[in-house]
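User: quick one, sequence for these tokens?
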């Protein structure tokens, strides 16, 4: 198992390196970052200082190496760089130090804040939204798929398949607009929900943030529609295969209750593809959350990234892509591990 995890981590690092290369050469080629940082006003000396600080006076390949050194957890930095960039980590050495640090994603062109702190402030919102969407998808999708398989070729089965096809076909941004308008605007007096809102509310007296889940309902349902449809179909298909196995017929022959056979023996052996879908889709929900967060005004990484794109704030965009890619890789490794836990034959293979 350790060798398997090590191999997956190595593949993940190679993929992440590819993402870093793509992100750097894609966004560093647009415009002049020094002009974006200092705005429309500023003299040539100011612009030259900014270009030097951002390494824009260096060849492109050197700029990439500096960027790779910044975003890598293992790095080489001078003492001045550590103090100037406020790097957090463990460093050893003399003037040039070897360090193990939190990746430095540089600073926002607009707010001048550290990109890592901006994204980490928004990350809980995206994580809450993705977890809620997947919880809804699993809570409804798995039982619906089981019922559809047990009641094959009945109206329940047909309805589940028809609903799944619609759920897979409907884009998240389209469903988001419809759901937001219908339940957050037209029927707002009855639902008590709003067309937009954050995962926190600000106390009018103290000014402190407090968690509020009322605004989570509509975006979580919107984001959970597609994984719900896929989980339903996968569970139904897997259960149909399992229910035809000899050990299921043996369980019935031994006199076990139908509920025990289906939910304890049948569903457990049908969960492999469902677990893979759940973990894979949980990572992909980060990408889908970009549109949903923007439509519902939900404060997460997606909305922060879209706002940064509108303002040409490329460090924020680049940082969000790297964080999303890292999260996606880690979730897929977790999916492989869970797959082996549920089915020991996978570990043996």
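Assistant:
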């Amino acid at each position: 198992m350790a060798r398997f995890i090590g191999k997956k981590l190595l593949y993940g690092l190679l993929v992440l390196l590819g993402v870093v290369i793509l992100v750097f050469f894609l966004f560093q080629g647009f415009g002049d970052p020094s002009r974006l940082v200092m705005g429309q006003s500023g003299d040539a000396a100011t612009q030259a200082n900014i270009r030097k600080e951002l390494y824009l006076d260096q060849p492109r390949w050197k700029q990439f190496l500096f960027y790779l050194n910044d975003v890598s957890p293992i790095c080489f930095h001078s003492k001045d760089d550590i103090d100037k960039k406020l790097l957090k980590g463990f460093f050893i050495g003399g003037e040039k130090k070897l360090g193990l640090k939190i990746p430095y994603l540089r600073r926002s062109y607009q707010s001048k804040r550290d990109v890592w702190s901006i994204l980490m402030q928004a990350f809980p919102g995206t994580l809450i939204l993705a977890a809620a969407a997947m919880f809804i998808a699993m809570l409804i999708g798995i039982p619906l798929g089981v019922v559809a398989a047990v009641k094959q070729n009945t109206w329940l089965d047909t309805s589940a398949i028809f609903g799944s096809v619609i759920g897979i076909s409907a884009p998240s941004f389209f469903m988001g607009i419809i759901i937001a308008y219908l339940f957050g605007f037209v029927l707002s007096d009855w639902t008590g929900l709003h067309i937009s809102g954050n995962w926190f509310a600000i106390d009018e007296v103290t000014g402190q943030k407090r968690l509020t889940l009322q605004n989570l309902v509509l975006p979580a349902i919107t984001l959970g529609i597609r994984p719900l449809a896929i989980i339903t179909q996968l569970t139904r298909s897997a259960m149909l295969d399992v229910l035809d196995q000899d050990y299921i017929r043996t369980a019935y022959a031994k006199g076990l209750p139908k509920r025990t056979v289906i939910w304890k023996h049948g569903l457990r052996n049908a969960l492999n593809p469902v677990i893979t879908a759940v973990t894979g889709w949980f990572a992909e929900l980060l990408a889908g959350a970009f549109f949903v967060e923007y439509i519902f005004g939900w404060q997460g990484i997606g909305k922060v990234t879209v706002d940064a794109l509108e303002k040409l704030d490329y460090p924020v965009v680049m940082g969000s892509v790297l964080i999303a890619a890292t999260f996606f890789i880690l979730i897929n490794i977790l999916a492989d591990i869970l797959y082996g836990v549920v089915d020991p034959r996978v570990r043996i293979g």
